[in-house]
Amino acid sequence: MATIESLLNTADLPDSPTPRLDAELLLAAALGKPRSYLRTWPEREPDAEQLARFQASLLRRRSGEPVAYILGHQGFWSLDLEVASHTLIPRPDTELLVESALELLPATPLAVLDLGTGSGAIALALASERPAWRVTGVDRVAEAVALAERNRQRLKLDNAEFLHSHWFSALAGRRYGLILSNPPYIRADDHHLDQGDLRFEPSSALVSGADGLDDIRVIIQAALAHLQPGGWLLLEHGFDQAEAVRALLKAAGFAEVDSRRDLAGHQRISLGRFHHE
Question: Which of the following CATH numbers is that of domain 77-273: 2.60.40.10, 3.40.50.150, 2.40.30.10, 3.50.50.100?
Fold first, then answer.
């Protein structure tokens, strides 16, 4: 008999860092139930269709495909977001961008820009917390813009919008009090690109030149024409890139340059404020 408990105990995911969690998420999805159902009814037996769905999901996970792509959604901040293989999977580290923005700026009306929005995670988290803010998210991948818009509509966040734009290309004349980005920042030769979930995520959203800073350089320079006086630029980057990013911000004329640490103690984001001469 294939009970819920026996299926979880025999789910073989040797290469996953979280095999039990993965199996629970995949089985709960196959059953159409919350994870709590698995603990409440461990002796229940899934029907043939549910069992087939679970086994198909296990096969995909064994091949290394991320659970978020198999399920089609991922939690970020207080939101549940649809995700797909043409966008990055939203990660807890990126919530530091949201936290820092909310700390820096008041809840009064503000024009905000999220560059490389992907699933819309950062933009929608800010829009959900700050109803007076008008948040624009842009992405150069049309499918990502459509995905972010679906998330926006499902969450009913009317103070957000999503546009097709490669960085600032479609934003001529627009200025913002806050610009944020989780841009590509991995070096082209980084061995992590051949490991784990990164193998399945779009390389265009991950890799940025020989030192990983090509896109960050572009954003810092181009942001000068799109920030309001006193506006802030916040950038996520690699755990070992904070010093280099701060130097780029200072060289471009940003003031109040600083970095913030994530839960692991790494300097994960850097920021600066734009002042007109």
Answer: 3.40.50.150
